[in-house]
Amino acid sequence: MTARHAALIAAAALTLCAATAQAQNPFEQVAQAAQPAVREITKIAGEVYRFRNNNHYSVFAVTPQGIVATDPIDADAAQWLKNEFKTRFNQTARYLIYSHDHRDHIAGGQVFADTAVVIAHQRAKDVIVGEKRPTAVPGLTFTDSMTVELGGTVVELAFVGKNHSDNSIVMRFPKERILFAVDFIPVNSLPFRDFPDAYLDEWVESLKAVERMDFDILAPGHGPLGKPEHVRLFRAYMEELRAEVTGMARAGKSVDEMKQAIQMKKYEGWTAYKDWLALNVEGMYRLVQANRRGN
Predict the structure, then answer these.
(1) Model pTM greater than 0.85?
(2) Beta strands in the chain (DSSP E)
(3) Over the stretch 49-71, which tens digit does the pLDDT of each residue have?
(4) Collapsing DSSP states into helix, strand and coil, what is residue 106?
(5) Gap between the Cα atoms of 113 and 245, Å rounded
(6) Could you give the CA distance from residue 259 to residue 8 in angstroms, rounded to a whole number?
(7) Superfamily assignment of 3-290 in CATH?
(8) What span, in angstroms and rounded, lies between the C-alpha atoms of 137 and 109?
(9) pLDDT per residue over 21-53, tens digit each?
(10) Domain chopping of the chain, boundaries
């Protein structure tokens, strides 16, 4: 990439950052629906970049043979990004990798399907087809792991277990030491609302699997970049909340009583603490009760 291209990217990022305030909650962009989308491209490391569309993020790698892209987010965002690939890097997407099946991350994949091989977990493909997600159907799937190599860049795809969905994968860029993980490892943020489409025990185990991986930079699908330590911190939150809810359920407390009593004060500095803690308690109660047989 030329110095001129780098300068253009930096200038665009600064302009867009100045035009918008920080997102209130990392998963929500409903309030921004009527406003122009805030989009930017920033370099993470090497030739791996992060694409922002309002409060959603994906990553991509630029190589001499084309671009390895990830979650398109929506059709408008994908078209904007496709144009940037051409004007900034003079490249097209050769691979498009979905992190999981949820629409708010993978809609718009058809924009890249004219040049890119679309990849996802096999279960993600099943849901995309079954639910008629508005995106390109993956042409290449896997169940445990896959390696994508293009122009000297390697991306390791791995299914680490059920968590925020039953088909979420992580994408590791070993040379750049970056891990892209969407929705199930927020950085200093509470998990989304009441844990929709979640698998509690497997989620904790999947976090442990990520902790054993070798990387320096955690790139989540929402919010700021993080480090490996943020995976452990988030697992601690999940385990502590589960213990609190389980203990109060065994004491015969109702979910409304739990929502009043459980405070998790050590996490009050995290994003969405005020908005989502009660919803987290409610969702955790549902998940705990689904796998608990009381007296």
Answers:
(1) yes
(2) 39-45, 48-53, 56-63, 66-69, 93-97, 117-121, 140-142, 145-150, 153-158, 170-173, 178-181, 217-220
(3) 999 999 999 999 999 999 999 99
(4) helix
(5) 45
(6) 48
(7) Ribonuclease Z/Hydroxyacylglutathione hydrolase-like (3.60.15.10)
(8) 8
(9) 333 455 554 444 557 899 999 999 999 999 999
(10) 3-290
